[in-house]
Amino acid sequence: MQGSHEVDIREAFLKATTFAVAGASTQREKYGNIIYRALHDSGRNVYPINPRSAEVEGQVAYPDLLSLPVVPQALSIVTPPEVTRDVVKQAIAIGVSTIWMQPGAEDRQASEAARQAGIEVIDDGSCILVILSRMR
Question: Residue 8: how many CB atoms within 10 A of its CB?
């Protein structure tokens, strides 16, 4: 059972006005693409982060968080844990408010660093796609 703080973090995450998806893939079957599309298709202002592609789903993709034209309030991370650490360092540097590490992206060291920097972190193995599907 989820505690009320965890529910509040998820609600705050989904109420953000700007989002970024680190690990947004150009391959439609990959979770990074599915999560990007789910956020984008729900009408949210979302920026794809992909260091190997200039665009994702027809939108300009950025190589890293530092390259974004705005600071996203909410960041969904869909990367291997060793990449997650670097993404979180960038999130701390630019002032992201909330991070959701998708299943498989979690990294204890990155979570601790983000929390110490005052960032709300969702890293309990829950998936944003499940929460978004419940909202339809």
Answer: 12
Rounded Cα distance, 42 and 118, in Å: 28
pLDDT at 82: 95
Please state, as a whole number, how many other Cβ atoms lie within 10 Å of the Cβ of residue 54.
10
Q: How many domains does the chain have?
A: 1
DSSP code per residue over 40-108: HHTT-EEEEE-TT-SEETTEE-BSSGGG-SS--SEEEE-S-HHHHHHHHHHHHHHT-SEEEE-TTT--H
Residue 16 DSSP SS3: coil
For the entire predicted model, the pTM comes to: 0.92
| Structural domain boundaries, residue 117 | 4-134
Q: What CATH number is attached to the domain comprising 64?
A: 3.40.50.720
**In this structure, what are the phi and psi dihedrals at residue 75, rounded to the nearest 5 degrees?**
-130, 125
pLDDT value of position 132: 79
As a whole number of angstroms, the distance between CA 69 and CA 4 comes to 33
